[in-house]
Structure to design on (280 residues):
């Protein structure tokens, strides 16, 4: 049977991808960011997952105001790299796992979660930056990837509680898949940041630290955080952290914190990162 062996939480700052793509990762400013992922690159190389289920948000590349799915599941065999205005990132094409993806679609829909099934979907930095942080710059990704896009851009986004419970449904789906697969689930986005308006540049390190404290030990409390509290405490883009709760819901009730990292700033964002392992 398929098995989720662990979860990765990470920010997906676009400037991180640009730093990698332009050979700036060794510069003092960026080296501090990338140093926080050295452990994680070794961890995932040793874990050798067959599939990554990657939760992220689309940044108006695959979707627009014409179509706004709350939850969009990539079921295709491959996903091209999106052009976000300055050409596609120079990273490998993302290859999916249609068998597991369609199984998750069936299982979660019958579990009363409404999935938008995508058989064609370009993927942007929200997905490729986390892959680069964990796998570096390979000629091809050494893992199959199932993209899962969540609307946290256009109001109304899903609640943290909805995301946490969806994670549990995804776990049930993976556990019931008959093929012997090792799966790692990523929850990406955040942490506190705001990109526009009078509070542009907002960073709330105290809120971020408490979120990181509670993610492994008390996710039910995090699931109760309201949209208004995210906006007030973590900035308008801080709502992205509800996607971490999908990852956390898909793990065991008790998890081991294998690695934790926090750094300010990366561009205008607080970077948070955590590796969680199932204990059973």
């Amino acid at each position: 049977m398929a098995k989720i062996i662990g979860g990765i939480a990470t920010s997906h700052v676009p400037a991180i991808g640009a730093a990698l793509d332009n050979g700036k990762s060794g510069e003092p400013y960026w080296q501090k960011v990338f140093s926080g992922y050295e452990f994680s690159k070794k961890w995932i190389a040793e874990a050798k997952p067959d599939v990554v289920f990657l939760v992220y948000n689309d940044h108006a590349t695959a979707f627009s105001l014409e179509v706004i799915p709350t939850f969009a599941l990539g079921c295709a065999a491959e996903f091209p790299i999106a052009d976000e205005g300055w050409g596609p990132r120079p990273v490998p094409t993302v290859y999916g796992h249609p068998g597991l993806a369609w199984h998750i679609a069936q299982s979660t829909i019958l579990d009363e979660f409404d999935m938008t099934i995508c058989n064609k979907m370009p993927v942007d930095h929200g997905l490729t930056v986390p892959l680069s942080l964990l796998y570096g710059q390979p000629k091809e990704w050494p893992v199959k990837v199932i993209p899962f896009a969540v609307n946290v851009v256009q109001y109304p986004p899903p609640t943290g509680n909805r995301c946490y419970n969806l994670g549990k449904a995804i776990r049930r789906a993976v556990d019931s898949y008959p093929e012997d697969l090792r799966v790692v689930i990523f929850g990406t986005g955040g942490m506190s940041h705001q990109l526009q308006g009078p509070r542009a540049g907002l960073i709330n390190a105290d809120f971020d630290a408490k979120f990181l404290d509670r993610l492994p030990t008390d996710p039910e409390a995090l699931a109760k955080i309201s949209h208004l509290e995210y906006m007030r405490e973590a900035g308008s883009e801080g709502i992205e952290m509800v996607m971490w709760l999908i990852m956390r819901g898909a793990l065991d009730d008790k998890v081991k914190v294998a690695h934790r990292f926090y750094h300010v700033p990366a561009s205008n964002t607080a970077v948070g990162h955590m590796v969680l392992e199932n204990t059973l």
About this structure: Strands lie at 3-10, 51-56, 71-74, 78-79, 94-95, 116-118, 144-150, 182-188, 255-266, 269-278. The first strand starts at residue 3 and ends at 10. The mean pLDDT is 97.
